[in-house]
Amino acid sequence: MIILVLEASSTSAKAMLVDTVKQTHSIKTLPYAPGTHNNADAIFEQILQAGKTLSQGQYVEMIALSSVWHSLLICDQEMHAKSSIWNWYDTDASVLCNTLRSNESYVREFYQQTGCMVHSIYPYFKLMHFKDKGIFSNNDRITDQGTHMFYHLTGSYTTTLSLASGTGFLDIHNQTYHKRAEAEIGISIDSQLPKLVGFGYTAPLSEKAAHLLGMKAGIPVLPCYPDGGLNQVGSDATDLGIMTISMGTSGAIRLASDKPYLPDNMNTWCYLSPKGYLAGAATSGCCNCVDWVKGSLFDAKTSYKSIESKMELSKPVPTFLPFLYGERCPGWNDERLAAFLDLKPSHSAIDQYQAVLEGVIFNLLQCYESLTASDLPINTIKLSGGVLNSPRWKQMCADIFAVPLTEDPVSQTSLVGGAKLAMELLNASDKATSLFSTKETILTPNALMHEHYMQQYDRYKHWYSVYQRQ
Predict the structure, then answer these.
(1) Per-residue pLDDT for 438 more than 90?
(2) Which end of the chain has fewer CB atoms within 10 angstroms, the N or the C?
(3) 159, 107: one domain
(4) Residues 290 and 201 in one domain
């Protein structure tokens, strides 16, 4: 059987075609055309293009969908986009959220109900910020890129509990929308938000979408799941005890839980994966910070490999606070700024690049410490994302965390997660291991380097606590 997975990522349209009989899979990635990264209709067209290119002439039996968490899109009743897409890194609501966070009882109540902090990454607070700006009306649909994609494939205004759990609109305990949005924002839960469904729901591919993809109508389509939740499925990390550390554009640490994990200090989040609860912590700065420092300090022709080969890892370097896009966990300060501290004339561009690599991991270490403070079991830690392309950076992770890290060898993990969900519904889960398994590598920490990095980490924590805390 053949499965097609379509994904709207932060930067590109992706498709994966899986053949469970031939035991093959292929991937097509199309970087978004200039100026289209927040245009829902243009993104959908590019996703169709990627999917059609891969699946032409194939008999597809199921389609699965993936998109980013935390996006917001305003559409009319026919799901034509009326706005651009606001993504997690859009912090327009940061001033509003900073004001709301002064009310501790409000913050605690919202967090305990939704698993989301009062923070500008969440669509709930973006919409609250837009309330009096005339950006949406009572007739509009409040949606996101993934739900928009599913509607235009099937005609069904439906979203998954997993995707909705990252919006701030969902009560994660009873897994329904909470009613506070009607009073606080002025929207109708029943008419403006999509229908909620759990795993197992599908809708048939419409005639129009089938024509655009070059397929037959009626193919079952899974509603969209978030890439973060699908990463857990793709990494085989839905069981208790398996932690994932994903280092891509942003960073995230996730851990499956059998119930909501909502600590009193509120320094983590809790959403729903396709398979249960997911405790986690995320950072806004990761590979995006590395791309920034490379583009700012080095010639465009200089490679990452060339820069990293010149790093002296045992050398003290400046402290970098990786908050170019504000802070998510652990402090949830969306107005926090990035900075180099302890910078001296003797520090080179290479030293500053190395400081960025360290600073990104230190922020993730803060998140790791928050999760390890829980009573959730941790038996295995899997590392994935762009970090695996850098031998020196991934070893830094092991040395700083001071635990063995398993390199997750599966590339495009969220696409694999979508394929695995479809395979489960098609009773073909037994094919997944042979299709996607590859040899795992263990990164072993170096005790001497760990001691060096902890001295650097002490400086990082000092500056984190005193510098530019808004």
Answers:
(1) no
(2) C
(3) yes
(4) no
